[in-house]
Write a structure and sequence with these properties.
single chain, mainly beta, nine-stranded mixed β-sheet, eight-stranded mixed β-sheet, extended
């Protein structure tokens, strides 16, 4: 036994020794505990031996060659730095059993990409994975308890790590900010990370706990949201949304904060510009600074009641906010909190708010509302904000100690007419009541101190104001514009009335100004036009400018002597500022430029500029009423304009003190006839006596030294020859008078007299001899109508201009032989002058010299005349002179012609003035045939202008080279023109408009047909164009309508625009192929311009947009940038065939080519066509057949629009481009799904058709096709089930709105269908969904569970949607027949005679053969009948229930309510309807007439503005609540929409009968007219009731129709709907007995009751209700019938054969509407 033990021990020692020897000698060093302490190898792949229990410190340190390490399962720990810097290591598997990983264990293992830490690991040391930069995936142990410092730092490729929930300890900064450490909220790991200053992540939320002093978690802060979701819900448990957590997140549109959140940090949601909605925590306490700053789109946020603080700029620039409710517990609002919230218009500030920051509400227009006296009101006021109550805008004021010392009323916001200011108001702010025109009275508080600027400005309804004595100041414009103000009481202590205070108080008759007032400001009482008197206080010191301006009814103001300062223009001309001459006030006013009045004289002292001393007294204006004026002594000067325009003054006497009269002093004194000037006057200003028509003479004192122009020449300024006055007057431009001659001395440049000029003869003698002393005459005799003979002084050498102008009686005058010049207009209008001999020495005649000498027929011009100016005489006076004479040349040079026989001639001259020809200016003869003599070298365009209707034949002379333009134009009787062959050019328009011209020869040498040459020659039926013509000008043959054929010369190279336009007789023109240039619009569209394809002409015509014609097609070449042809287009079809083939080679059908070719039925388009232009076939209504070529690539806008004969067009699949709206919706555009054409149509937003559906492809943002949308159904009427075509993936929202689908109750979607976006669905029976459905968007609102059933598969979007909306689901996976549904509409409204088919209105869903048989039954066969063949027929009025059930399952059924009605035959609606506010109206009773009456048709109505009305118990009964106008629309089956205009006016303001007393015979009716007045309309007998005080005497109906019952009197009272009353006394006398009066008890007039009646008038009694069929038929004598308002039914044929019938009836009654509908005359009473 001992030996055995010994051997065992030896063996163990041997083995241990062997082991130790191997570890030391190999690559691994392993200690006695199994710890691998060192690896010394260099292998890339390393397998650690079994038995190793731990990897020791730095065992593999920096072994960069290792790529793979395999660890044995027995390892329990990895030591510090064990694998540090093994940069080549890429693969490592950590075996289960490891419990710890040491510090730096895998640090800088940059090649590792994935590590899975086994769940046995509890500790990971500091820096364990530090700088593992290649690591992208790391799974940690679920049993992990401890993580060291910097564990994951610099793992730059690692984006997230899930931290196990059980981690209890974490070192600081275990990872960089880019690595998301994920763990659950509330977990141990989350708190451990937070305590070590690490954040943790939940989804995209970066979070961190904060802890209190005992280490407990106090709060959880959301530090950052890093996602891009539009809608975000913050995790439960978060208590603080950290600073800038969402800052700048523009993707965010909605955020939900859990109830755990108590604080929103600074800038938390700043610049989240897409955020529209924020749901806040119900426990939120604080919204920190700038929390929602610049959230421009934020519209919806509810701040919870727990919030007490809103920080600085919290909602700054949230412009999208339109509503916001602040919590009642709010204490603080920070600076700029709501700056820029421009969408807010009203914001209620809780009364408890204690602090409001500066600029908290800057740049917003919201009303800040709180209670008066509240802390909030005071807080707002302290930072300069007004606060609002229901009717006031207010602000508290504060003293120097910042204590409240008053209340300022900033603005009145109410609408009451009588206003009382709030108690405690001390100040009324500027514009507080500005423009409150509705206010009639204001009660001011007793403690009021001040009224601000503009306070009551524009209060036009205010009639009086009593200002308490406490008021010390009133602001400028305070009562300006108070146009209704009639009484003002000013406070006793007031010292100043400021600027414009009572400006424009136009009804203020007077005002008592307190004696304390010392100052009245500028414009204080301006425009107070009713002011008639005012007393200024005796202590007044200042009176402002314009103070009483425009007070037209204020005659004067007595200015006190205390006045020290005065403004300008204190009052208008109608108000005199009165004070005494020499008074202090007079000097004050004068010094300030204001005049004063004394006894009607407006005066002002003048002052020296140097020392300010008084220099004189000026009369500014005479304002008295005396006709004879004596200016007061002492006045030294009459200021200019002082008496201007005074029509009362007849005479003026100036005192000797006057030395000067100013400019226009007595200007326009129309009745002034006498002026007495003082002898000492030295100066008179310009126009002093101008335009005084009764002033004929002024005696000018000889001592006058200076004078400007004083008066018109018809005022005789009399003075002595040689006097100072005569010279002064002459130098001033005036004439002086001596005898009958008005003269003026002439002076040279040095002022010396050098002549005497006769300006005017003033006498009336017939024969006049001019004094010999006169050296000049001027226009002395101009307009002397009495002068018949004049003897001129022999020494005259010239007759000046206008000397005898207007001497209409002048018959004899001898022009002295010494006269060499006759001036302009010298004998103008000398009508009696029959002859005039011009002196032979005459050299010059001025212009217009003999104009108007009507009795002169000719003037012999002396041959020696050298100069003749323009227009010396009218053309009626022949200027005769010898051909070749100096006079003839002179006359010609003056642009006048001279006369010889019947010819009016003129010489022509070259540029040097040398005579070079003779022009026939005008033919003045009477012959219709004219032969122009040889020798004439030139014709004028106007040569024949005055005989255009006379000429029939004209022969032009040989040698003539050219014919001027317009020579014979519009010679409408001219038939022949002979043109010499010498002519080579003919001017434009030469024969234009010669409508009778039949024959004309164009000379052979002509090379060009000029512009409009023969235009308008409508009788010209043939013309030969010379072969040498190469060009035809614009409009050359325009409107030559008789031309039926024209041959163009082959050498023609140019045709200008409109050359043959209007040649309606031409059907074609053959254009020479050599044509090179063509203008626009050569001929009408009806004229075919024919030429060869490819010819020069074809190209020219194409370039000018004329096109050329081949076989009825107008074609046009296209051209590239180089001018080469690049295509052939059909511009227009001009033929008349019904079936046509487009020529081969055409590649384009141009815009409007076949536009409105309504006769075409078929068009064959060749395969060469690749393009069809805009509107190419527009309006081809007869087109029934159209095949498009397969090579077509492009279709233009509106190409087939209006082709109503086409039901479809097959669009070739290869079409690549499609314009907008190529065809009407009624035309199906058919092509293949997915084809190029389908895509092009879809991109142009047009549908293409597949299986009766208009569909359209949808596209991705990149333009790729991603689906097919069913837009519309285009087939016939559909039954109960609508199945979408295979391939459709989406629907349009309005797919089910089409009329043919009105019976559809089931929608069946195809396989592959993805997106259902649709309206009008939930009320239907069923929808069958495929498994492929991905999206459902149904916006319909439905209260409760909708009736629709979803047939769908489990776990699909359809199932989810149905569950959320409470929709019934039937699963198709596991469907049972008993789950079938009958699909059918629930109601039908149909006219009698309508038929339905059971197979069309109902179906089994889903359709299975064994379940499809249906049965139908009607609950009321009198209304609805069901036939055996499935026909359902409406046979009567009323309702019935139609039940349709499954034959196999009778308990499965659907029911529909069917309403039958009579189709109306007529429907009328009043054009205008007037309703006063707060009144009711039954539209159906009053305004809408539908016949037959009992039709039971469904009637609907609507209007533009429903806010004007409140709908009452009846569907058609409305109450007007708001004034305005709106359109009313009424829908009646079978009629177009009826429209009317409704006007809602103000309520009645007064009510009165047109007559207050009325007398009528018994048994007769009369209509009273009670008028109710509003501001815009007068109502008669509407919206009121009538009552009789004595019904036994007279009754009255609701329309005011009075019926006389018996003799006596009764009072009829009208009461309006708003309580106004009016009365009329009705006196009833004995009856008149005329006509047929039906008995009073009558209720109904039966069928043919009075047919053939011979009476002329019939009175139907009040109370009768019905008039039956043919009741009065064939009553030919019946002229009038009186029908009361009680009649509500009249048969359509009741009055057949009554051809001259007038119906008398109350206005608005059924009978009045009946009369209008049936064309009878009507007297509505």
């Amino acid at each position: 036994m001992e030996r055995k033990l010994l051997w065992t021990s030896l063996l163990a020692c041997l083995l241990l020794a062997l082991l130790c020897c191997a570890a030391e000698s190999g690559d691994f060093t392993i200690d006695e505990n199994g710890v691998l302490t060192k690896y010394t190898g260099s292998d890339a792949v390393v397998t650690v031996p079994d038995g190793v229990t731990a990897i020791g410190k730095e065992a593999f340190y920096a072994k960069s060659a290792i790529t793979e390490i395999h660890l044995p399962t027995g390892i329990t720990s990895i030591g510090d730095s064990a694998f540090r810097s093994c940069t080549g290591l890429t693969e490592l598997h950590l075996p289960t059993g490891i419990t710890s990983i040491g510090a730096n264990a895998f640090r800088s293992c940059t090649g590792l990409t994935e590590i899975v830490v086994p769940d046995s690991v509890e500790t990971i040391g500091d820096n364990a994975f530090y700088d593992c930069s290649g690591l992208t995936s790391l799974r940690l142990s679920q049993g992990l308890k401890t993580l060291g410092t910097n564990v994951f730092l610099s793992c730059n490729s690692l984006t997230e790590v899930e931290i196990p929930a059980g981690v209890e300890s974490v070192g600081n900064y275990i990872a960089s900010n880019t690595l998301r450490l994920r763990c659950a909220v509330g977990s141990s790991a989350a708190k451990a990370l937070s305590k070590a200053q690490n954040d943790f992540w939940v989804e995209d939320f970066q979070l961190r706990y904060a802890f209190d002093s005992d280490g407990s978690a106090a709060s959880l802060t959301l530090k950052k949201y890093a996602g891009d979701a539009a809608s975000v819900t913050i995790p439960d448990g978060v208590t603080i949304v950290g600073d800038s957590a969402f800052n700048g997140n523009t993707s965010l549109t909605a955020v939900v904060l859990p109830d755990s959140v108590v604080t929103i940090g600074a800038n938390a949601f700043q610049s989240c510009t897409g955020l529209t909605k924020a749901e806040l925590s119900s426990k939120l306490e604080k919204i920190a600074n700038y929390a929602f700053n610049n959230c421009k789109a934020l519209k919806e946020i509810q701040i919870p009641e727990t919030v007490t603080e809103i920080g600085i700029g919290a909602f700054q620039y949230c412009a999208g906010l339109t509503e916001l409710t602040l919590p009642e517990g709010l204490q603080t609002i920070g600076e700029s909190a709501f700056v820029g919230c421009s969408g807010l218009t009203r914001l209620a500030i809780p009364d408890g708010v204690q602090s409001v920051g500066i600029n908290a509400f800057h740049s917003i227009n919201a009303q800040l509302c709180c209670s008066m006296g509240s802390r909030a009101a005071e807080a707002l006021s302290r930072v300069g904000y007004d606060f609002y109550t229901e009717t006031w805008k207010l602000r508290y004021t504060f003293d120097s100690d910042k204590q409240v010392n008053g209340l300022r009323a900033e603005r009145y916001l109410g609408s009451d007419a009588a206003v009382t200011l709030p108690e405690g108001t001390t100040l009324i702010g500027g514009s507080a009541f500005k423009d409150c025109a509705f206010i009639t009275s204001v009660t001011l508080p007793e403690k009021l101190l001040s009224i601000g600027n503009y306070a009551f400005s524009g209060c036009m309804g205010l009639t009086e104001i009593v200002i308490p004595d406490s008021v010390t100041t009133i602001g400028s414009y305070a009562f300006s514009g108070c146009t209704g103000l009639t009484r003002v009481v000013l406070p006793a202590g007031l010292t100043a009335i400021p600027d414009c205070c009572f400006n424009n108080c136009e009804k203020l008759p007077g005002i008592a100004i307190p004696e304390t007032v010392t100052s009245i400001g500028s414009c204080a009482f301006r425009y107070c036009s009713a002011l008639t008197a005012i007393t200024l206080p005796q202590g007044l010191q200042t009176l402002g400018a314009n103070a009483f301006l425009y007070c037209e009814n204020l005659p004067y103001v007595d200015v006190p002597d205390t006045l020290e300062s005065a403004g300008s223009y204190i009052a208008g001309d109608t108000t005199q500022l009165r004070c005494s001459i020499g008074s202090s006030a007079a000097y004050t006013l004068s010094k300030n430029g204001t005049s004063f009045y004394d006894d009607g004289y407006k005066l002002r002292y003048t002052y020296a500029d140097r020392d300010g001393s008084v220099t004189g007294l000026a009369l500014n204006k005479y304002a008295g009423t005396e006709a004879e004026v004596r200016v007061p002594d002492g006045v030294t000067e009459l200021i200019g304009w002082c008496c201007v325009g005074n029509n009362k003054v007849t005479s003026v006497v100036l005192p000797e003190s006057v030395v000067k009269i100013g400019e226009v002093a007595f200007y326009k004194c129309k009745n002034l006839s006498s002026v007495t000037l003082p002898q000492g006057i030295v100066e008179i200003g310009g126009s002093a006596f101008a335009e005084c028509p009764k002033l004929t003479v002024i005696d000018i004192p000889d001592g006058l030294q200076k004078a400007a122009w004083l008066a018109e020449d018809d005022v005789r300024l009399r003075c002595s020859f040689g006097s100072s006055a005569a010279f002064a007057l002459s130098k001033g431009g005036n004439s002086f008078c001596a005898g009958d001659f008005q003269m003026r001395y002439l002076f040279d440049d040095e002022g010396n007299r050098n002549g005497l000029r006769l300006n005017k003869y003033l006498g009336t003698d017939a024969e006049v001899t001019v004094p010999e002393e006169v050296t000049e005459t001027g226009s002395a005799f101009k307009d002397c109508k009495t002068v018949t003979k004049v003897v001129l002084p022999a020494g005259l050498t010239k007759l000046e201009s206008d000397i005898f102008s207007g001497c209409t009686a002048l018959k004899e005058i001898a022009i002295p032989e010494g006269v060499t010049s006759i001036g302009n207009g010298a004998f103008r209008d000398c009508e009696a002058l029959t002859e005039l001999a011009l002196p032979q020495g005459l050299k010059k005649i001025g212009s217009n010299a003999f104009i108007g000498c009507k009795s002169l027929t000719y003037i012999e011009i002396p041959d020696g005349v050298e100069t003749v100016e323009y227009f010396i005489a009218e053309s009626t006076i022949q200027l005769r002179c010898a051909i070749g004479s100096s006079a003839a040349v002179a006359v010609s040079r003056s642009n006048d012609g001279f006369y010889s026989d019947d010819l009016y001639l003129r010489y022509t001259f070259d540029g040097d003035g040398v005579q070079n020809g003779l022009t026939l200016m005008k033919y003045i003869g009477a012959s219709s045939e004219v032969i122009v003599p040889d020798g004439v070298t030139k014709l004028q365009y106007s040569t024949f202008s005055e005989c255009r209707q006379l000429l029939t034949r004209v022969v032009l002379p040989d040698g003539l080279l050219s014919i001027p333009e317009s020579l014979l134009n519009n010679c409408t009787n001219l038939k022949e023109v002979v043109i010499p062959e010498s002519v080579t050019t003919i001017g434009n328009h030469a024969f234009f408009g010669c409508a009778s011209l039949e024959k004309i020869n164009l000379p052979a040498g002509l090379t060009e047909i000029s512009q409009s040459l023969l235009g308008g020659c409508t009788a010209l039926s043939e013309i030969t164009i010379p072969d040498g013509v190469t060009a035809i000008g614009d409009s050359a043959f325009q409107k030559c309508a008789s031309l039926t054929e024209i041959v163009l010369p082959q050498g023609l190279r140019r045709i200008d625009g409109e050359a043959f336009f209007g040649c309606t007789g031409l059907s074609y023109i053959d254009i020479p192929d050599g044509l090179e240039t063509a203008g626009n619009w050569i001929a009408d569209d009806s004229v075919q311009l024919r030429c060869s394809i490819g010819s020069s002409a074809a190209i020219a015509l194409s370039k000018s947009d004329n096109g050329f014609c081949v076989d009825g097609f107008r074609l046009c070449y296209g051209f590239d940038d180089d001018g080469n042809t690049n295509g052939l287009t059909v511009k227009r079809y001009v033929g008349s065939e019904t079936e046509v083939t487009v020529p081969d080679g055409v590649d384009s059908i141009g815009d409007s080519a076949f536009h409105r070719c309504t006769g075409l039925s078929n068009i064959v388009i060749p395969d060469s066509v690749v393009s069809i232009g805009d509107s190419a076939f527009y309006g081809c209504t007869g087109l029934t057949k159209l095949a498009l070529p397969q090579g077509l690539k492009e279709i233009g806008v509106n190409a087939f629009l209006g082709c109503e004969g086409l039901s479809y067009i097959d669009i070739p699949d290869g079409v690549e481009t499609v314009g907008d709206w190529i065809a009407s919706e009624s035309i199906q555009l058919r092509c293949s799904i997915g084809s190029s054409a389908a895509i092009a149509l879809s991109k142009a937003e047009q549908n293409f058709c597949v299986d009766d559906f208009a569909v359209r492809h949808s596209f991705t943002d990149g333009g790729a096709v991603n689906g097919l949308i069913a837009e519309r159904y285009v087939g016939g009427k559909v039954g109960a089930v609508l199945t979408l075509p295979q391939g459709v993936t989406e629907t349009s929202q309005y797919l089910l709105n089409e009329e043919p689908l009105e019976n559809v109750m089931c929608l069946k979607l195809p396989e592959g269908f993805k997106k259902l976006t649709i309206d009008n669905l939930l009320w239907r029976s069923a929808v069958v969904f495929p498994e492929s459905i991905q999206s459902i968007a149904i916006e319909e609102e439905w209260e409760g569970a909708p009736p629709v059933i979803f047939y769908c598969y489990r776990d699909t979007v359809a199932e989810s949607f149905a569950q959320k909306r409470g929709i019934t689901i039937v699963y198709l996976d596991g469907f049972k027949p008993a789950q079938t549904t009958v699909a059918m509409r629930s109601d039908y409204t149909l006219p009698i005679g309508s038929e339905l088919r059971l197979s069309e209105i109902a179906a089994a869903v889903p359709s299975m053969p064994e379940n499809c048989a249906l049965n139908a039954v009607s609950s009321n066969p009198e209304v609805l009948q069901v036939e055996n063949d499935g026909t359902i027929r409406v046979v009567g009025k009323g309702d019935a229930t139609l039940r349709v059930s499954l034959s196999r399952y009778p308990d499965i059924y659907a029911e529909a309510c069917v309403w039958g009605y009579v189709q109306p035959t007529s429907a009328t609606l009043a054009e205008e309807i007037w309703i006063p506010a707060k009144a009711t109206r039954d539209l159906l009773k009053k305004d809408l007439i539908i016949l037959p009456a009992d039709n039971r048709a469904p009637i609907g109505y609507g209007m533009d503005n429903w806010e004007m009305f409140e709908q009452l118990e009846g569907e058609f009964t409305l109450m007007a609540v708001n004034r305005g106008d709106t359109a009313l629309y009424v829908e009646v089956p079978g009629f177009d929409t009826l429209t009317a205009q409704i006007h809602v006016t103000a309520r009645f303001s007064e009510l009165a009968f047109e007559q207050t007393a009325l007398t009528i015979p018994a048994d007769t009716r009369a209509t009273l007219r009670a008028q109710a007045v509003t501001t815009t309309h007068t109502y008669v007998n509407e919206y009121m009731t009538f009552e009789s005080s004595a019904p036994d005497v007279a009754t009255v109906d609701e329309d005011g129709v009075v019926y006389g019952v018996s003799e006596g009197s009764a009072t009829i009272t009208a009461t309006s709907y708003n309580g106004l009353t009016a009365a009329c006394t009705v006196t009833v006398q004995g009856g008149n007995g005329s006509g047929l009066k039906l008995p009073a008890f009558l209720k109904e007039i039966g069928e043919e009751a009075f047919a053939g009646c011979s009476e002329e008038s019939v009175i139907v009694p009040d109370g009768c209700e019905t008039i039956g069929a043919r009741a009065f038929a064939d009553s030919a004598n019946l002229r009038t019938i009186t029908i009361p308002a009680s009649v509500t039914s009249i048969a359509a044929d009741a009055f057949d054969g009554c051809t001259d019938l007038t119906i008398r009836t109350p206005k608005g009654s059924y009978a009045s509407r009946y009369a209008a509908a049936h064309g009878f005359g009507c007297v509505a009473e």
